Amino acid sequence: MSELLDDGVLESLLGYLPHQGAAAHREIFLGWLSDLGLKTDVQNLFITHGGQHAISIALNMVSAPGEAVLTEQFTYSGMVALSSQNGYRLHGVPGDAHGLLPEALDRAFGETGARALFATPTLQTPTATVMSSERRELIANVIKKHGAFLIEDDVYAFLFESPPIPISMLIPERSFYVSSFAKCLAPGLRIGSLVAPEPFRDRVINAIRATGWMASPIMSEVVSRLIHSGDLSRQVHAKRGAAARRNAIADRVLGNWLSPLSAAPASIAGCLFRPDGP
Ligand SMILES: Cc1ncc(COP(=O)(O)O)c(C=O)c1O
């Protein structure tokens, strides 16, 4: 923040900037997403008020109040809040240690008429499962088969040095990819991003305008500078180390009750439970 003042850029950030975010910020965010394995055109990337805002916009594009929305059987609490606000009918799809079960997803699309799946393939909340690459292919095929859309929440991918390839890369034309700086930096910044299929571009810009005009340019500038200076990468390394140390402690103390957390040593949010355990 003091750097912004010293550099005399504050005034330029105090006005109304484009709804989707300043071009310079979006270019820098694009580089960060590319390190996470998500490659796209900058035109498809939108800066949001955090990941929750991105999820809310994406769901608004592909489902209507009263419709079923598919999720993993246990899902992120913000999704429950969003559904009670917007009247989506959440339908949980069973999974195993490799993530969602493709046959169960196929059945759920058929039975509910849902047009959208909200999923967190990498370090799912709250189970901490990481979907295998074979499973990602199968899930992408099921989504394609039903002409449905994926809202892929990838806020924890940064915890891996080489994150698994997002499903959104397999079916970019059917995927909304959600990322956030809440977990890798700080939630109070309220900065996240959404990558949407190209035909949705104008609607996404209008949705940002309708629900908050634009994410705070000052905070986007702070995030951009932290990416550019390498400070974000240093934070991320520290967080990976802290997660591994904490999970080792949890393994030692709670090992009888939890699946080995060493199965997902990077997880900071999961509670890896054993469905058959005590
Ligand atoms: C799985 C998951 N997705 C999305 C979010 C939302 O992140 P943000 O704080 O950027 O809105 C959270 C925050 O708790 C989360 O745990």
TrEMBL record:
CDD domains to which the protein is assigned, alphabetical: AAT_like
GO terms of molecular function: pyridoxal phosphate binding
InterPro entries, sorted: Aminotransferase_I/II_large (IPR004839), HTH_trans_reg/aminotransferase (IPR051446), PyrdxlP-dep_Trfase (IPR015424), PyrdxlP-dep_Trfase_major (IPR015421)
Domain of life: Bacteria
Residues annotated as domain Aminotransferase class I/classII large: 12-232
Membrane-spanning ranges: none
Protein known as: Aminotransferase class I/classII large domain-containing protein
Organism: Bradyrhizobium nanningense
